[in-house]
Task: structure prediction
Amino acid sequence: MKLTLTEIAQAIEAVKVQGEYFDPPAGYSIDSRTIQPGECFIALRGKNQDGHRFIQEVVQRGASLIIAEETGNFPAPVSAPVILVKDSLLALQQLARFIRKRWGGPVVGITGSTGKTTTKEITSLVLSAGFRVFKSMGNFNNDYGLPLSILKLSEWDKIAILELGMSAAGEIARLASIAQPDMGVVTNVKPVHLEFFDSLEGIALAKRELIDALPSTGTAILNNDDTRVRKFGRHFSGKIVTFGIQSTAAYRVSKIEFKGLDGSVFQLDHAGSSFSMKCPLLGGHSIANCLPAIAVAHQFGLDFKTISAQIGQLRPPAGRGEVIHFQAGFSVINDSYNSNPAALDCMIQLLKKITGFKRKILVAGEMLELGEESPNFHAHSGKLAAQARFDLILGVRGNATHLVSTARLHGYPPEQALFFEDSAEAAQWLQHQACAGDLILLKGSRGVKMERILEVLKWHFS
Result:
């Protein structure tokens, strides 16, 4: 959306404006390495870098406007106009709030411990059958990423789907004040980010901030299978719509037919009628991610025939349950984008059900941000993996050693339950062990970089 210099300065409560200005910015950036000609550069102070140091560089690369802090240490004068503010991060968020308000369309906010990004992608795809949909970029869901996404809104967009993440209480409330959602989706409350919370109840209260931020005319889309999420409706006076698999809900899956690596066929029940849908994504958790998307799309007026057709077109993003078949005769389920106890347990159950392979191999990277209970969570996953009777159980880095040691306690010899210090070491071992008939699951937290194992396998078997 095109804003004049005066509008931008007013939106971010400018302290001072330096220089003349002509054309509205072609876009906004906080990264000096990717700034494009005609864009506005917002100089932020980070833990390791100060964007003010790169102002001359971005001007040379064609930045048309600079937003910087009045106390920022940068060379002056510069040839581009400069808006000085007290806090550039706050200015970024104020500008996003201004653009969202001016745009004025409906916003769907999505949060939850797991499945946020996937649910956002599915919801966007389904709604695209009837609307021009804007969605937040990747997993841009924090104090920096969410406003940067909103700054890309176009006047032609009809619905915005925004992901709201958090690692501390109050963060979702702050993000919701920027996004101003009309509809809020909560996927679940799970033991994720326990490093920053005392309990699951604390996480639930933080997630509920999205529902608390909705207007009384808004709609809350809640997972009725999650006992904590189910209670969020008690604190909301607007419209409440539920979805679930185990529990009675407005949108409920009553039957699931597992199709192995080809996904699942499920029956959706709503208002006394039933509809059959095929989900090409792997696992029951994928159906759980589809349910809120179905509910949102139906609330916006799409019929179930259209919704079913869109669900059938789903394809997994890289690292989120994609299946890769190697010419050497083995297959890899690449779910390396991230991990937590609930998600790993779902994938263990999925791997357990799949048939037609000589060996099934679990490669589980450490799950991060679990706090003091991390060893216990890893041990629990190790017990589940042992009970699933996988042929090989590999743990990678840190607390994944507890996953491996627990598998050994349940009867696995050391040559079948192995621990590796990092993903490079695991990749080196696995490239010489993978063979025809294997099904390999790669999963781990982002910081463990489990995708490197896939890269080595691709190179080795190229």
About this structure: The longest strand covers residues 251-258. The radius of gyration is 24 Å. The mean pLDDT is 94. The chain has three domains: 5-90, 104-311, 322-460.
